[in-house]
TrEMBL record:
TM segment ranges: none
Protein's recorded name: Luciferase
The Luciferase-like domain, residue ranges: 9-256
Source organism superkingdom: Bacteria
Organism of provenance: Actinoplanes couchii
PANTHER family linked to this entry: BLL6902 PROTEIN, LUCIFERASE-LIKE MONOOXYGENASE
Alphabetized Gene3D superfamilies for the sequence: Luciferase-like domain
Pfam families per UniProt: Bac_luciferase
Amino acid sequence: MTTFRLGFLTHVQGRGPLAETYRRAQELFVIADELGFDVGWVAQHHIPLHGGGLSSPWPFLAHAAARTKRIRLSTAITILPLENPIRVAEDVAVVNTLSGGRVEIGVGSGSGPVEYAALGADYDQRRETTTASFGVLRKALLNQEVGAPGFTVQPPLTDDFTDRFWQAVFSAPGAGFAAEAGANLLLNRAAYGYAENTDVIQRQWADAYLAAWTQPRPPRIGISRFVFPAADKRTALAQIEDGVRRTAQNFVDRGTFPAGQPLDEYLRRFHAFYGHPDEIVAEFQQERVLPVATDLITQFNPGVPDFDAAVRALELIATEVAPALGWKPSTSAASARPTP
């Protein structure tokens, strides 16, 4: 069986007031920690999403660090071209210190031009800016001099950060660049803009990454997947259909998805795993990227389930889906896990 770390990613969305959405997202981190998830991830969005969105991930993760005991904390992604990489490094260093060394960071270039315009960045140069900023961020988090002679980030990191950098990519050449930079590979929940299944496309990217890897440490590949287990497909769809339809229409408007497709086709393009846990396990056993992945990162987006359904889905992922695929929680987490 495949062995991997199990992650949970939230876009901080909900069905109510934003303050309640943020509070419940924090609760999901606590529950994921108790269930034995290895890593909790948050996505950064400067433009509001349906039902929420998180513009500033590091304050959120600092709060999560105070409420959790063992789960690692990361971003998927921090939109690096819209940030000062030295300031990001300072935020990471502070949260890492407060959490007892539990922080990782995923970076990328984001998705749309509006946020670039709002924050005064050049959208057309986003990939070049990501590469340059990543170099600065990496040096800063390895306690090297950055920005000015003699300047290093405070507080200094006392633990080795070398294998905690993740880079999101959307092509085989991008995967090669990530390998050359010594970053872990972060693959999105779906490969948008392709008619083929996501895992067919992304396996090519993963293979390109592995072929280009020359670092002395083992490579790491994280795959994010839309996973929503429930009693059956009908129950699952009742919770996720509205969000899937809304997001699919947004992609149609942007030209990423074809118009007029049935819901099943949009779910396929989102590479969705939903329904009874046994169905999800069977589908994952055919997943082409999972055999080379070191991290499986589950998320409910584009679905926006209610809180109770989200909690139940986390429980099913941790107790039925992931164990059937070869994952085991840490001993301390297993003993603390509540009975579903």
